[in-house]
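User: My collaborator sent over this chain with a note saying "see what the structure looks like." That's all I know about it. Can you take a look?
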Amino acid sequence: QETRTRGPVGGILFDMDGIIIDSEIYWEKIERIYARQKGISYTLAYHRDIMALSPPELAEVLRRKYGLKEMVEQIIVERDRIALEIYETKAKLLPDFLDLIKRLRGRYKIALVSSSPFEWINPVLRRFRLRPYFDEIVSAEEMRDGHGKPHPAIYFFAARRLKVRPKECVVFEDSVNGIKAAKAAGMFCVAVPGKWVKDRRGVSKADLVVRHLGDRRIAEILV
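Assistant: Without extra context I'll predict from the sequence alone. Here is the result:
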């Protein structure tokens, strides 16, 4: 894929799950377990429906589209209980992330922008001592209207927090919903899709698609 052109860069925005840590491999197992407990078939369509949503939005999808009777708050609590173990003990840093952010630190304003709640973000920052690398940490739970990705609100919010214009931001995303959010915000998007991301047409909406954060084309546009 050809890299699309972009203007000057002021801010770098990193998604967390699937970009910084390998949590997505654990999430798929959790989602399969949770779906089975609730009598839902775990299909590719189901996976696509819930990918990168904020917890309240995901709970609403499970209620509206998949017929769960539990209240939104109860669904969130049930999934939180399963998920905490991923972030506190299981998830590992993905290769090349630390090398990349160490090179970018001090040259650009950097934010972590995640659909996950702070309850999951904070253990990752602590375990891997990542907090000093970020100027801002943004969670979808800060969105007053509860919008996670693919809605662009969280990326507009992050740009304001960094005090950079959206068109001066480069976003690293692994999911199609995340790519949609970044592009809807008018940002340059680098996609690093995991093997669980099957929607290649959706991935191709990114400005640059790479297999890992060590790809030399990233260095060409940023470092």
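A starting point for your reply to your collaborator: The longest helix spans residues 72-90.
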